């Protein structure tokens, strides 16, 4: 069966208004001094840590076309202050991590079930994360993922159960075609023509997130955040490869039912990018009750940081016995 379009993202100027067949190749990246990189699973991953290196490690995984900087520094610091060593990183094909030089995926073929041009799998991205832990000499960690990062986090818990202390899946879904789908108006924005200028890319992304962001918690600095992300790294061809990976991923529901570690699911009730049904389905597969947040969409508004941090910390603490 051909895969259903299921395209969650975070705040990025890479992932919107992208021609689905032949995106323009752009690699405009600005190195940030002082940020370390680790060699992991054949790629280099840019990462940053917060808190006491001897504390329990907690890995944050971000979504499609979205950089680690979408995890706000105060958000990371709040988790660290609760007694965790927090690691955030750029996935392959995003941010300042390795951007592959491989042919553009054939989305027309992918949507008919031909996956021969898909460059890597969700398991590959999960292994990237596990290999980053290896590079940091961390045997096990609490895993938290948002959007596509939630998919990677789920796959990490499935493929590498001995590395995963706890799992928190945020604004994500199981991969089942009947749940977690974007609203039709969102799909139209995602598959619009590729922007040709910086201004256009930033404005298009802002328009998207005015639609999919939290209706009860608008972000007044949204334009600035998107511009900063664009100027740090703008790699739409990398986002296209990540999107192909999502479209090719199988339904994780059966495997999720086998996960026995402490788990949490957080989802905005008003999420138009990954419908809340994806959160409910993920929680049902894990055998838990989800935290459904009224008025929240597909973002991390400052007013909800405490709610999300408390849920992450509470779930991780159940694994550590705190």
Automatic annotation (TrEMBL):
InterPro entries named among the record's database cross-references: AB_hydrolase, AB_hydrolase_1, AB_hydrolase_fold
Name the UniProt record assigns to this protein: Alpha/beta hydrolase
UniProtKB keywords: Hydrolase
Domain AB hydrolase-1: 57-300
Annotated Pfam families: Abhydrolase_1 (PF00561)
Organism of this sequence: Catenulispora yoronensis
Keyword presence, Hydrolase: yes
Gene Ontology molecular function: hydrolase activity
């Amino acid at each position: 069966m051909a895969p259903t379009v299921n395209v969650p993202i975070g705040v990025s100027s890479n992932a919107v208004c992208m021609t689905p067949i032949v995106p323009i190749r752009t690699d405009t990246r600005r190195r940030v001094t002082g940020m370390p990189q680790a060699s992991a699973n054949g790629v280099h991953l840019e990462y940053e840590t917060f808190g006491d290196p001897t504390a329990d490690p907690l890995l944050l995984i971000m979504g499609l076309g979205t950089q680690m900087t979408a995890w706000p520094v105060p958000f990371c610091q709040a988790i660290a202050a609760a007694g965790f060593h927090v690691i955030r990183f750029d996935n392959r094909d995003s941010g300042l991590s390795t951007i592959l030089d491989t042919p553009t995926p054939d989305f027309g073929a992918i949507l008919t079930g031909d996956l021969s041009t898909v460059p890597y799998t969700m398991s590959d991205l999960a292994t990237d994360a596990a290999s980053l832990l290896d590079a940091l000499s961390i045997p096990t960690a609490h895993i938290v993922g948002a959007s596509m990062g939630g998919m990677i986090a789920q796959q990490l818990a499935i493929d590498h159960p001995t590395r995963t202390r706890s799992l928190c899946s945020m604004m994500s879904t199981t991969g089942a075609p009947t749940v977690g789908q974007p609203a039709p108006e969102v799909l139209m924005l995602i598959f619009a023509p590729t922007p040709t200028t910086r201004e256009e890319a930033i404005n298009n992304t802002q328009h998207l997130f005015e639609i999919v962001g939290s209706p009860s918690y608008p972000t007044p600095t949204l334009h600035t955040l998107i511009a900063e992300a664009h100027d740090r790294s703008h790699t739409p061809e990398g986002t296209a490869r990540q999107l192909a990976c999502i479209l090719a991923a199988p339904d994780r529901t059966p495997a999720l039912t086998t996960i026995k570690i402490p788990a949490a699911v957080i989802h905005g009730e008003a999420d138009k990018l990954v419908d809340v049904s994806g959160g409910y389905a993920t929680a049902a597969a894990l055998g838990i009750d989800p935290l459904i947040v009224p008025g929240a969409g597909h973002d991390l508004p400052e007013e909800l940081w405490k709610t999300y941090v408390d849920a992450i910390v509470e779930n991780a603490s159940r694994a550590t016995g705190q």
